[in-house]
Specification:
This is COMM domain-containing protein. InterPro entries: COMM (IPR017920). By secondary structure, the protein is of the alpha+beta class. The protein contains 6 helices and 6 strands. The chain has 2 domains: 122 residues, no CATH class; 70 residues, no CATH class. It is elongated.
Length: 204
């Protein structure tokens, strides 16, 4: 379970206390704030106009609301960065985070839906980018396979003049960019060969 730093929680609550109306603004705009933050952190090369909340903020005539939303967006961005860093995987865990911020369960339902769709859904899509379907149609990640080449003990009585290949093992390594979770680097193939030497030992 992600436990927020008590100092950080205290600072956020102090901001709510010192700025009249900001807590109500947070409650009203929280789903959009979290949606925008996750999209900003998980999107590659997106421009400001791609985020509806940012466009709406630019068009606001209420200076107080604009200041509140900018402050809240900074808070939520930092929070979402922490969520991504610790790889939070459950809606229930996320609900505890919202409770720490003072949101009631009913108030947090819409935000949890955003978390499930915009974060968990996108992460699942990234993780399944190279999945292959099996015979039943179910997706399964296949990153490693081993092909043993069983030689008969009577095969030349294992008397060989040159090293003989007796086993092949290969792996496919997928690497995510640490700066952009949407980017999956080109797969790398690692191949391990096991050879039988003239002395009867093995060499890899």
């Amino acid at each position: 379970v992600l436990e927020l730093d008590p100092v950080e929680i205290k600072q956020i609550k102090q901001i709510f206390k010192n700025n009249e109306g900001i807590k109500d603004t947070f409650t009203q705009y929280a789903p959009q704030l979290f949606e925008t933050s996750f999209l900003m952190l998980l999107s590659s090369g997106a421009k400001k106009e791609n985020f509806q909340l940012l466009k709406d903020m630019d068009e606001l005539e209420d200076d107080t609301l604009s200041i509140h939303l900018n402050t809240l967006l900074e808070i939520v961005l930092n929070l979402c960065s922490t969520i991504i860093k610790v790889n939070l995987k459950g809606v229930e865990e996320f609900a505890h985070v919202l409770a720490d911020l003072g949101l009631k369960r009913k108030e947090g339902e819409a935000i949890c839906a955003v978390f499930e769709q915009q974060y968990l859904g996108r992460i699942a899509g990234i993780n399944s980018a190279y999945e292959e379907e099996d015979e039943d149609g179910a997706g399964a990640i296949k990153v490693s396979k081993k092909f043993p080449l069983n030689l008969s003990t009577a095969d030349l009585a294992l008397q060989v003049n040159n090293p003989r290949l007796v086993d092949v093992e290969w792996e496919v390594v997928h690497t995510l960019s640490t700066k952009n979770l949407n980017k999956v680097f080109q797969p790398r193939f690692l191949i391990k060969l096991t050879l039988l030497t003239q002395q009867g030992g093995t060499l890899q």
